[in-house]
């Protein structure tokens, strides 16, 4: 009788121990179960959006992955149980090229009004293709850049004769370059003012009703 009771107690004790071990071991086993490779890769890409996993392998309890991103290639060690990134090692970072330095630009020198070009230099007298060489004035709608402008000649002329500007012409001769500015006054008289194209000097003022220069 005692043997039966002892055997029964032994069986009950073994069953109890198995139940306890199973209760303790089951959650532990579930918590340590390895993630699938797809789950581990998805977890990494959620943290590094825009990157690409080009290689992945399970080594024990760790996944070894290679991540390609805009900044280069990296080797990642990922915990297979919870997907945590344990380490990151750069393999070959993308080379950042420096911006090229802008090339220096030579400054444009303004024309020297005090030293006009001599004949034969930079479009000076004696080099224009339209000059006949007979000493007569030749119309030239585009004076050289070193001359005063038509607007400046007009302003100088209006300072001498007030009125309405009818016409402005640029002319050249062997001895001079000048503007002819025609101005009509309120009383109907018209004046033609000759302005030196280099110095801006008023050379002559001729009225339409006489031949005398003022």
Break the fold down into its secondary structure elements and pairings.
Layout: H1 2-31, H2 37-47, E1 52-59, E2 62-69, E3 72-79, E4 85-93, E5 138-139, H3 150-160, E6 164-172, E7 177-184, E8 190-196, E9 202-207
Antiparallel strand pairs: 1-2, 2-3, 3-4, 5-6, 6-7, 7-8, 8-9
What does the oligomeric state look like here?
Answer: single chain
Mean pLDDT: 75
**Rg from alpha-carbon coordinates:** 50 Å
The tally of helices reads 3
Describe the structure.
It is a single chain. 24% of the residues lie in helices and 30% in strands. By secondary structure, it is of the alpha+beta class. It has a five-stranded antiparallel beta sheet, covered by helices on one side. Strands 1-2-3-4 form a four-stranded antiparallel beta sheet, with helices on one face. The protein is rod-shaped, with a radius of gyration of 50 Å.
């Amino acid at each position: 009788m005692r043997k039966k009771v002892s055997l029964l107690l032994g069986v009950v004790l073994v069953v109890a121990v198995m139940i306890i071990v199973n209760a303790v071991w089951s959650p532990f086993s579930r918590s340590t179960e390895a993630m699938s490779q797809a789950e581990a890769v998805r977890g990494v890409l959620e943290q590094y959006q825009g990157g690409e996993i080009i290689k992945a392998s399970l080594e024990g309890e760790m996944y070894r992955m290679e991540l390609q991103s805009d900044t280069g290639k990296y080797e990642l060690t990922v915990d297979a149980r919870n997907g945590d990134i344990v380490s990151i090692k750069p393999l070959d970072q993308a080379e950042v090229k420096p911006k090229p330095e802008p090339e220096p630009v030579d400054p444009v020198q303004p024309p020297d009004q005090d030293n006009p070009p001599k004949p034969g230099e930079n479009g000076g007298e004696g080099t224009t293709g339209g000059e006949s060489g007979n000493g007569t004035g030749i119309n030239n709608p585009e004076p050289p850049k070193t001359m005063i402008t038509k607007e400046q000649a007009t302003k100088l002329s209006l300072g001498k004769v007030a009125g309405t500007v009818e016409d402005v012409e640029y002319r050249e001769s062997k001895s001079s370059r000048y503007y002819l500015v025609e101005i009509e006054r309120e009383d109907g008289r018209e004046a033609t003012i000759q302005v030196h194209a280099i110095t801006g000097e008023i050379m002559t003022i001729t009225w339409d009703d006489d031949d005398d220069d003022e």
